[in-house]
Amino acid sequence: MQSILQNHIPEQAIPHVLQLLEHDHLTVLVKKERKTRHGDYRKLPNGKHQITVNGNLNSYRFLITLIHEIAHFEAFKKYGRLIKPHGIEWKHTFQHLMLPFLNPNVFPQHLLPLLANHFKNPKASSDTDITLALALKKYDAPNDNYYVSQLPVGSVFKLYNGRCFKKGKKRTKRYECIEINTGKVYLFNPNAEVQLLE
Predict the structure, then answer these.
(1) What crossing angle do the helices spanning 59-79 and 88-98 adopt, rounded to 10°?
(2) Buried b (16+ CB within 10 A) or exposed e, 10-44
(3) Three-state SS at 26
(4) Among 31, 85, 101, 112, which residue has the fewest nearby CB atoms (within 10 Å)?
């Protein structure tokens, strides 16, 4: 497990993460990129528990995602299976588990205020926190992706599945985008990652 973590999270975080993972029935798997999620947690039919995290995440996002999923395991263990997946019990557990990592030995100084603000009320995905998502994106390996919010209105872009859209106006929180082939309007999260078409 330590060798997996050395490749994916900040070095200073490894000892504490290893302590959190000291459960006989909990395994962590690093997966290929999944476009719809950074990671997940589930209880397996054999009674063991499994966490998966995408291997393409930068070390800071990987750590946040890993602790997010450990929080599911801990919350279900403490409060039972009937709690909401991202309800108050999970939020409190996630906050508690992240606290030891929120220091300049683990995260760059400029991320700490953004993380502190995010963890006042953590959401189901850190991607919904646009300011934090943009700051974390700076540590990603270079790619051709943009967030929808970064594109000018009228830009044409495509998703990983090949569907093409034209960016429209912003509603309260999301952007109206018209699918080129069908003319249907879809609402996009501001930090949905897309490929700009020239």
Answers:
(1) 130
(2) beebbeebeebbeeeebebebeeeeeeebbbbeee
(3) strand
(4) 85
